[in-house]
Fold this sequence. Notes:
By secondary structure, the protein is of the alpha+beta class. It has helices at 2-5, 31-48, 80-96, and strands at 10-15, 20-24. 35% of the residues lie in helices and 10% in strands. The protein has a two-stranded antiparallel ribbon with strand order 1-2.
Amino acid sequence: IATDERSYIIHACCIGHDHAHLVVARHERTIEQIARHLKSKATMALTRSDLHPFRDLIAPEGTIPTPWSGGCWCVFIDARAHLNSAISYVDRHPTKEGLLPQNWNFVTPV
Length: 110
């Protein structure tokens, strides 16, 4: 999985209907690089599972449109209280979308 490939430390994650929230520890890669890597691996998993939302739009040369936006929205955290607040927000977020609470095996508690 992508978190293992690059040793990302993710402190919180929720996957909503049309977006995701993650709290990612500082890393040698930029947050933009991490986001691209995670999106790429998620696309591969969706394709392998035949769940890619645009699987019916494959072009003759074999390409498929991406379901992801071009960038990511990043907030940098530099205080423990802010970190705790961000993790709490992400942990509570699924219920705001009517989803069940989420627990991911790649999440590392602080």
